[in-house]
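User: quick one, fold this
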Amino acid sequence: MPDPKRPPTQSEAEAAVRTLIEWAGDDPGREGLLDTPARVARAYRELFAGYDADPREYLERTFEEVGGYDELVVLRDIRVVSFCEHHMLPFIGKAHVGYLPDRRVVGISKLARVVNGFARRLQIQEKLTSEIAEAIHDILEPRGVGVVIVSEHSCMTMRGVNTPGSRLTTSHLTGVLRDDPRTRQEFLEFVRNG
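Assistant:
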């Protein structure tokens, strides 16, 4: 058993994958599976890279010279790849992120990096949606933030209830995007219609 004070080593992760292969009923020593434990461990390192950094740090470099711009900033269709914490199966979809700036903006690639940074962890979609919105709200201090995520969950589409094509939509709104019906409507129209 690995020491709880240190993360498991690459070798320990590979041994766990070999155990799962055996448990599934196959031989981890057969030719086609010999390198699978190392491949899976490397893939997991990439898929769960969100634990290695604080996504909030992407928002720290802002721009105050906005030429008087004070309308919504919305970045749509950011690819989301995350993993359900209950089954460790992927959920894949799109995030739509918007905010109403107050004095400063952030480079748009940073919004995508924040989404990706939080997504590359084990979690539920509801938590992911809230984490993204709250990070933007806390760091940029805009007048409001909106995050909508729409994704398909493998834990429902490949197993369990087997409902391919079903999608989960979650949203988290803060400030005027939550409290002002016109601003909320404008954001949701951007999300729906681009």
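User: anything notable?
Assistant: Helices lie at 10-24, 36-47, 108-119, 125-140, 154-157, 175-179, 181-193.
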